[in-house]
Fold:
Amino acid sequence: MKLNLIMATAFVLLCSCINTRQIAGTLNSPRIHFGKRGGFTNIPVEYVLTEKGQLYKLENDSLLRISGVASARLEHVKSLIENTGFRDLDINDPGNITYFIRVVTEDSDNEVKWHDSSEMQGLVMIYNALMDITKKEK
Structure:
């Protein structure tokens, strides 16, 4: 009986280590963070899209895998980001509800923040494309 309990505990610990390694690997690879913060409840909504098309939702400091994203959709988002010159944008315009996009690559890490009354058409287009992925891929 004790041996079964020890084996079950060891298995659970091993599985938790594998999950931690997967999350650490996800956060070290090129990725896109996006979402919003603030509002009445101040509950942040954040998603992470990896370079391999894996979509995660960040909840309570844990990554919950939602789904995979089709490569065509992923390429569409990447082209939108590239065409706006996202890497060189320097926008930090928070408000009551703050929207954000953070793009992390091997050689850059840039985050932009804006609020809903801003005139950020290019960013809104990228943000909407990313949010469409979360709706259709669930």
Residues 32 and 103 are 5 Å apart (CA to CA). Helices lie at 2-28, 71-83, 121-136. The first helix runs from residue 2 to 28. The chain has one domain: 30-136.
